[in-house]
Amino acid sequence: MGRTDIIPGTDIPEGLVGTLYPADSPANKLSKQLAEGKIIYVIEVRGGDDKNEFGHRPEVIPTANKIIEAGMNAVPLFYSWGNDESFRTTVLDPKVVGVVCITGAVLPSFSKDQLDKVIDDLKSAGKLVAEGTDIYSAGVPKRFNTLMEQPGTYKYKCAVIQFKVPGAPNGGSDKGADGNRVDSIPIANGIIKAGGACDLLLYDYQKHDEFVASVQDYDALLVRINPGQLSQGTGEGVQERFDNTMNDLLAKGKLVWSSPSVQTQMGAKDALVKIKDMSCGLPDTFAYYEAEELEEGFKKSMAFQPRVIKQNRGSAGEGIWLCWLEGKDYCANFGDAVLADDDKLKVMEMNDNHVEYHTVKEFLTFCVDGPTGDGAGEWKSTFPGKYLEGGKAAGGQLVDQRLCPRISEGEVRMLMVGDVLQMMIHKKPEGGGLSAVGGNSAYTYYKPGGPAYAKLEDDFVNRDIPQLMKALEIENDPLPILWTGDFIPVDGKEPGSTDYVVGEFNCSCVGISKFQAVCGGDKTLADVPDEDYYDASELTDLMGKTAIKFIEAKKAA
Q1: Residue 223 neighbours by CB distance under 10 Å
Q2: Quick check: 488 and 243 in contact, CB under 8 A?
Q3: How many CA atoms lie within 13 A of 359 on its CB side?
Q4: Distance in angstroms (rounded) separating the CA atoms of residues 36 and 71
Q5: Pair 102, 132: CB distance under 8 Å
Q6: What are phi and psi of 349, to 5 degrees?
Q7: How many Å apart are CA 62 and CA 97, to the nearest integer?
Q8: How far is residue 285's CA from residue 134's CA, in Å, rounded to a whole number?
Q9: Between helices 360-369 and 291-304, what is the axis angle to 10°?
Q10: Percentage of residues in the chain having pLDDT higher than 90
Q11: Over the stretch 223-269, which tens digit does the pLDDT of each residue have?
Q12: How many angstroms separate the CA atoms of 137 and 239, rounded?
């Protein structure tokens, strides 16, 4: 009787596996196998003083787990001459792509001769055979913790642009100990794997002209600089000079991801106003750039229904406030009533779900003048308010939308690579809160094409994206290489149905979380666990292929 509980859908003869799987000890535990897919077996023999207490050479289980983490099924198989035919049939199965031989020094010569014959048959059948723990020669993708060697010949040349904040450890909290964003090297390597050349370039604002000269020969640039970093410790005008350089390159037919206009038009919160009449928008969405606009608009909208007020700057939920009336009923129709300064509000900031109680006047004062403004009251928020500071040109704005009560069910993030959906992520608030940002959420990942969000996927990817670019007035700009749309569930027109509306877009240096999880300290890309590395590399490899595709389309236009 065979074992069918190790690799789903695969019957492995009992005598080859023994009774060692599963086991409680981590040293003897295999990672979860895939439901289907290719198989690489790790070959060992029973017995001998080179085995651990579980009967394995110490490197066997880690080797099998590394194969699984790289996206293939794997299990150790025992070889002995007595079960030669059963072993031969198992490893020559069409689903098997290769084997890794970790047989040790205890294999008797007659048994080794038998195994050598099987190995010869494997090679003749086109299977991959590796010796020792060299799993890479058995078809497992090789890991690269540094920039790969550039191809000898290439059609297109790209660069990943980075920046070190003056005086900041590592050059910024998004960097590793080597001074690179942890996801920058995999992004560059994704382009190299796709057949392009790709360099890592550091922008030095004190040598701006030298930088301008150095980027002229590139076909495309991927800017990996967090919003706001070019204004930290650099003086005035640095961001503007950098953006002007990117725009000059675009005018020369180069590609820049994401372009300054795309970051401004798509990444700003008032993009939600521009798409309010699309199927993924909310019609009652307003933007405020001046204190008078804010007071007039908020007092009217807040009198009608619970609202969400979103600042343009920041991330992770700070400056995003859920607002409810306290001790007063909402009016029946929009515009029937206007709130007074002393009407009371309950507000929740989405970065940490903390709740505060303020008057309308206190809330508006905090939004305009911060917690120390005259009449602001006492605030628990650790962030400075002043959301309109600098005016529209400097990104000072607030967006006002109705509060969608089903946000408590979580948001669905569409992770996009250009015009390709890479995955969907359901972010469910934890701890009874309403916020799925700021680390307060549980994540569930979905591949495209599944039933869970089939309608949302079809509506957004196939219908909304072309309209979206036009609505944001960026239809002539390249789509970002990596961007996201966060969707909130709302009741659909049909009873019991669900539609989704956009809560925000993010296209300014979207982080790749499984790489960036080790940033900010003494770690580098080499410290990312294998499982996370291989999983996140699927995304960066797709980014590389998409970059080359976009360059080819641009050249052909």
Answers
A1: 22
A2: no
A3: 10
A4: 10
A5: yes
A6: -90, 130
A7: 19
A8: 57
A9: 140
A10: 47
A11: 999 888 898 899 889 999 999 999 999 999 999 998 888 888 887 78
A12: 46
Q: Which residues contact 105 (CB under 8 A, 6 or more apart)?
A: 48, 50
**Length of the chain (residues):** 557
8 A C-beta contact, residue 141 and residue 537: yes
In angstroms, what is the C-alpha Rg of the chain? 28
What pLDDT, on a 0 to 100 scale, did the predictor assign at position 261?
87
Respond yes or no on whether the N-terminal peptide bond of residue 22 is cis (omega within 30° of 0).
yes
Q: Is 29 exposed, middle or buried (0-12, 13-18, 19+ CB in 10 A)?
A: middle
Q: Are 317 and 438 in contact (CB under 8 A)?
A: yes
Strand order in the sheet with 483-491: 441-446, 420-429, 411-417, 483-491, 498-506
pTM of the entire predicted model: 0.75
d(CA 475, CA 468): 8
The amino acid occupying position 81 is: W
Contacts of residue 251, Cβ cutoff 8 Å, sequence gap at least 6: none
Q: C-alpha 219: how far from its chain's center?
A: 25
Count CB neighbours of 20 within 10 A.
14
pLDDT in tens, 127-173: 888 887 777 777 777 889 999 999 999 999 999 999 999 999 999 98
Say whether 552 sits in a helix, a strand or coil.
Answer: helix
64: DSSP letter: H
Select from 486, 438, 423 the least CA-distant residue to 267: 486
Q: Which two tokens stand for residue 543?
A: 């980014």
Structure tokens at 118: 């099987």
pLDDT in tens, 446-500: 889 889 899 999 988 888 888 888 888 888 887 899 999 999 999 888 888 899 9
Question: Residue type at 4?
Answer: T
DSSP-assigned beta bridge partners for residue 501 = 488
- Is residue 362 within 8 Å of residue 377, measured between CB atoms? yes
Q: In whole angstroms, what is the distance from residue 158 CA to residue 352 CA?
A: 39
* Residue 246: closest CA among 231, 233, 236, 259: 259
- Spell out the residues 6+ positions from residue 108 whose beta carbon is closer than 8 angstroms to its own: 81
- Which pLDDT band holds residue 52 (cuts at 50, 70, 90)? confident
Q: Is the dihedral of CA 152, 153, 154, 158 positive or negative?
A: positive
- Cβ atoms within 10 Å, residue 192: 19
> Which residue do the tokens 């390249």 mark?
478
